[in-house]
Specification:
This protein is mainly beta. Helices cover 5% and strands 17% of the residues. It has 1 helix and 10 strands. It has one helix at 44-53; strands at 74-75, 82-84, 101-104, 116-117, 126-128, 131-134, 143-146, 162-165, 171-174, 183-185. Strands 1-4 form a two-stranded antiparallel sheet.
Length: 189
Amino acid sequence: QGYYMEAFKFYFSKGNHRLSLVSQREPMVIKHIRLYRENEIPTYSEVLAKYRENGYKNATVDQPIEIQAEDASAKSSPMLYPVTDRSSPAVKPSSPSKIRINTIGGNNWRESGDWIEWEIDVPETGLYHIGFNLKQNFVRGSYVARKLMIDGVVPFREMSEIQFYFSSDWRQEILGGEEPYLFYLSEGK
């Protein structure tokens, strides 16, 4: 159900083994079973060292690349539809009198395993920061967790479980906080 961030690991000794799946509830279909070694996701410090080793530089883009969250390119569920929020002018587009579709997620994004995807057109190859305009006002005294993937891959271990803490206000949050993480993006989509 998506409550565990990492793949389950099973120990097998050399030789033949018998795998059994026992039905607990609900029907399902299995196409194949595959045993493989899960690749370890590197830490940010390991990825940063590779950036330096490869000579990657910060992008020199003048203006931030802003993606409106409600303009998702794909979603795992029809329940993840764009909604309106008029609680703050920090949400774009904003209007004190008109209803504007300007956010996505919220209470609708509470099922483990649900995902939202955005397509970003990067103007130049380089290192970028990633930030969000967000409000997490659902889990008081704790956090909600999300996983960031770029082109289907978690870029480094710290992005396997990004923690967004409670606040009743909208806020700008850059991944990595005081020392923002750098993400290598090549030019294009």
